[in-house]
Design goal:
- The longest helix has 12 residues.
- A hairpin with a 5-residue loop joins β7 and β8.
- The strands form two sheets. A four-stranded mixed beta sheet has the order 1-4-3-2, covered by helices on one side.
- It is built from two helices and eight strands, in the order βαββββαβββ.
- It is an alpha/beta fold.
- 16% of the residues lie in helices and 37% in strands.
Length: 142
Amino acid sequence: MKISTFLTFVGDNCGKATEAINFYTAIFPNSEVKRIVNYAEGEPGGTPGLIKFGVFTLNGTEYLVSESNYKHNWSFTPGVSIFISCELEDQIEILFEKLSGEGGQVMVPLDNYAGDGDYGFGEKFGWCVDKYGVSWQLVLLR
């Protein structure tokens, strides 16, 4: 059995999946785009140029992706997030800055919460939504 996270870009984020994948694989080490299949002209279910199915890795963890321009009543939600455990302080700061910047949103500022309600995760924690609507939680574990 294998379990993977599947990201479907819809609504305002439809058409931005390739940009998002390239952004993510550029900021995380040991990451790559493994496969992208776009909808073909006349193919039912999608518009040419949109991702029908894709696979990429972030630091060796595999993610699946697609895009749909059908009017869905849902999109990404902060209730489901990608959780990143960092071992280096500069690493967590750089990732948090890049993920929350350029149109992203900070939900919990990256700060040292040790001794003051550390959320139970670690000494430094932050939560953000990136410019594509994907939610990220980052924690510093030493």
